[in-house]
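FW: tagging you since you asked about this chain on Friday. Here's the raw sequence from the shared folder, copied in full. Didn't touch anything.
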Amino acid sequence: DLSKFLAVEGFKLELPTELPAILERSEVLMEEIDGTAEITLADKRLTVRTRGPVGWFEEDARVRYGGEPVSFRIPPRFLREISGRLQSVEVCGGLLKFQGENFVHACSTIVSG
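HL: got it, structure written out here
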């Protein structure tokens, strides 16, 4: 029973509509498909950063977030696919909680915040 892990609450973050395109661009420089992107929330911006053997990528989008800076690492392909289906994610302590009509998915990916 995983319900106690999913019962956590945090703040809801509306994902920017341009996020899937940003994440797709971020994957170009990654060495491995299983690599991760660093996502930072600060000063009403969501910033995507990736690194690869030939360079780095950084792009940001405006979001409605004015709290303390938060950073997490997540595979950009996963976030791109799910952000194409959901408009928001709940940031809960050490978890990102994605909730759709028939599912709840939680990732333990927070690195600071």
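FW: The longest helix spans residues 19-26.
HL: agreed, and The CA atoms of residues 57 and 71 lie 16 Å apart.
FW: great, closing this out.
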